[in-house]
Write a structure and sequence with these properties.
321 residues; five-stranded mixed beta sheet; disordered N terminus; 26% helix; NERD; alpha+beta; Trna Endonuclease, Chain: A, domain 1; 7 helices; NERD domain-containing protein
Length: 321
Amino acid sequence: MWVAVIGGLVLYLVFKYFFYEDDTLLDLDSFHANALFAVAKRLEKLYHGSKVYVGIQIPDADSASRRNIDIVLVTDQEAVVISVKNVSGFVSADKDGSWLCTGKHHKPEHIPDPVAETKKLVSILEEYLEQRGVALPDGYLSFKVICPNPNFSAIRPDSFPPEVITYDQWKQLKPGQKNLASGWIKGVIRGGKDKMQESFSEKLNSVLSTAPISDRLELKGNRYVLGEFLEFKGKQEDLQALRKIKRSKVSRLSVQKISMLGFAHSTVQVLYTPRDYRAEGSLEREEVTVRSSTLVLFQPQNSEKPCKYKLSSVVSMSLSA
């Protein structure tokens, strides 16, 4: 009996070592990043053929820093800057535009005017696009604040400006219902301008696809983290094997498989893409095998300290240029 118990405990510990996430991962609040990607995926379904860009970092001349834009949606008729507020509880809008969130499970939270903040991002993005040779027609770039949390309950919904999409409005959106969100699609470029519109959209998407973005981790369980990759931590031989994975050379890596023989190993497939985008399509692949206990040191957005993740918990990592 004791042999069976001990054997079961050993199997449990082995299983946990290989497949369970580390403590830092369990403590991580990736709540916001998960919401961003969930909203992005739904927008792609709602607006077929659209392009959705997540986690864009736009240089802001006024603050001499980069400003984060949650999502930019580009359809065949307009572009929309979207801020995602994944707040829960009873939410009310004050006269000054700020929000007050209250609920049973958290303290009252004051949120500075999300509409004013998002509107500011529109002007920053317009300036950036103009610097890169894309002059937007008047009214082409709009903005929205989406509240996708099912526990979001608006107090006096009519007190929220039309740019705010409450959860009740968000869940009602369906493909083809383009007028449901208070003029979401305005059709600025229409009729007789198909070729010009197509050329303009291609140029806009080209600029946005090469804009600075946040580094991102995709974790097991369909979870994401946005922020900045710092370095790997682990045995010296593993670090030596991973030495080629640096921002100047690598745009993405993915963890393919785990070997349970001897030490824990993860096979990491690294996809090299040229930083010179004129060489589009030139890809180079390389695989390295390292211990699955090797750590990724990553600085999440809005966090004061870096977090560590085992490679066995990572599905992929994308690095900005």
